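Service request form, structural biology core

Requester: graduate student, group of Dr. S.
Request type: structure prediction, single chain
Budget code: on file
Notes: please return the result as structure tokens.

Sequence provided:
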Amino acid sequence: MCLIRPGDHARCPAAKSESHVTGVIPTLVPVSDAELLNVVDVEATCWEGEPPPGQVSEIIEIGLTEVDLASGERVGRHRVLVRPARSTVSAFCTGLTGLTQAEVETGVDFAEACRLLAVEHRAGVRPWASWGDYDRKQFARQCRATGVTYPFGRRHWNAKLVFTQAHDLRKRPGMAQALTIAGLPLEGRHHSGEDDAWNIAALVLHLAERDAWPATPTDG
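Core staff response, request fulfilled:
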């Protein structure tokens, strides 16, 4: 079985690629698709102030890292670029995420992105986690607005809440602060969906090593 270990996500160059469409970066997949946890982080169009007239915040990048809690490994790293339909990437958004309008225009539309999550990453079957509840709510909002079927199942874990409780913190930390508290490095660029999902997955494994990852989904 090909495993991707923390800090070494290119150790199996001959592994099968899961990329089939423009906007998905080729990544490594485990040979055996056991019950995995999908760790998801999204980036969306944003502005320094209010959105321009007629524009709404839309997902433009989905980062997804597959975690095998049983082996304590991050076993897959994925990125899907999503082409916005009702907004454009602002200079502020580019400064925050590194994404440009030209780059996201090479991505798939939102419906196809949700289809990829459901078909290639079994999003409706696998449990999933995100840092906070923003990602779950953004998917729900955008699915309602576009009539696209929500791709995830009901088993969702708020990793920020779990981390806060496990470390007995008074306030819920951001991802970067949580990495510092856990003594883990920030790998890649903060506010890159792909890199953030990879880092959040490291925090999930940190919690699992402390026997602090709950067996049942969180409520918020």
